[in-house]
Amino acid sequence: MALTGPEVAFQQLAFRAKWAGVFGGLVWGTFWVPVRLLDEAGVTGLWAVALLYGLGALCSLPLLAWRWRRVLAGGWRLQLTGVILGLAIALYGAAFLYTDVASAVLLFYLSPVWGFLLGRIVLRDPVTPVRWLAMVLALGGAAIVLGGSSWPPLPSNPGDWLALASGLLYVIGSLMMLTWRSVPASDYTLSFLVWAGVAMLLLAPLLEGSQLNLEAVVAEFPWLLAFVLLVLLPGCYAAVFGASVLNPGVVGILYMTEIGVSLLLAALITDEVFGWREGIGIGLIALAGALEGLIGLWRLAKERRRVTLDRA
User: Cα–Cα distance between 309 and 188 in angstroms, integer?
Assistant: First the structure.
């Protein structure tokens, strides 16, 4: 059955959104590097994360000045979505202070399960065989990479619960964006950055192990600003754009590229082990993240060939 013009246009939009989600995951996979550098410099705990997102919010003020009418028109729902997404990221950052990295990452990346289930309930979105396959590949890759954790992972401490809650909140925020598509991704990104910074600034003084060193902030500011402008802001926009178009379960799978990038960078930069288990796991995660995008590309190419033949 031939696709209509609007259907082809939406497939093209979804295709771009899928690769934007992959890019967002890649960027978040590098996020631990500046956090660790700030920690070594004396900005520890959530203050490091709050500084990054707070600076991102400040750098977004020109966009707010340009689009303030649209942001106000978004009303409470735009701001509530930003609060939920910002709180999700704040809880995710806090989880690493109370549990091990493997448990935090794995519990957060159960989000495709919540995403597909809630997407089915709220959006009546089918869980296709491709999505089942992608979810199995992604979770299987995560299980191999994080092989030291129990499977399935069960919350056993406050950090585990924070990570689980952060994944669920991110899925809820993604669903809110999907059900109100009249707001562009740029406005959601701006709201998300502001509220993420606010949430972390409120949490950072309350969490043990978080320390702010103003002299270190001044000393590290040049490279920090470059990272925010060149990496963090484009990555956040790409991630929010993907979440505003795609089923949240698909988004969760695409973001799993973060795990592979994080481990690969850790192997290159630090003394952490990178062996066959990590290689196989990263390969499965990368395949899961690219699967829907590759299939979308194949479908678009097939449709274009059909249109070309019809016109011949």
Answer: 41
235 token code pair = 């990555």
Q: Give the whole-angstrom CA distance, residue 294 versus residue 15.
A: 9
Q: DSSP letters along 66-78, please?
A: HHHHHHHHHHHHH
pLDDT one-digit tens code per residue, 16-29: 887 887 888 788 77
Neighbours of 288 (CB within 10 A): 25
Q: What is the CA radius of gyration of the chain?
A: 20
Residue in the block written with tokens 């972390």:
200
The tokens describing 87, both together, are 């709180």
Q: Where are the beta strands (DSSP E) in 88-240?
A: none
- Angle, helix 185-203 to helix 61-98, in steps of 10 degrees: 50
Band of the pLDDT at 223, cuts 50, 70, 90? very high
**How confident is residue 272, by pLDDT bands cut at 50, 70 and 90?**
low
CB 266 within 8 A of CB 38: no
> In sequence order, which ranges of 99-145 are alpha helices (DSSP H)?
101-108, 111-123, 129-145
pLDDT at 147 over 50: yes
Contact 27, 257 (CB under 8 A): no
Task: For 235-249, write each residue's pLDDT tens digit.
Answer: 888 877 877 777 666
Q: Which residues pair with 44 in a beta bridge?
A: 211
Residue 311's Cβ-side half-sphere holds a number of Cα atoms within 13 Å equal to 6
| Beta bridge pairs of residue 211 | 44
Characterise 75 by phi-psi region: left (phi > 0), alpha (psi -120 to 50), beta (else): left
CB 190 within 8 A of CB 64: yes
Residue 151 φ then ψ, to 5°: -135, 125
| Helices 5-29 & 248-255 angle (0-180, nearest 10) | 40
Pull the structure tokens for residue 284.
Answer: 């499965």
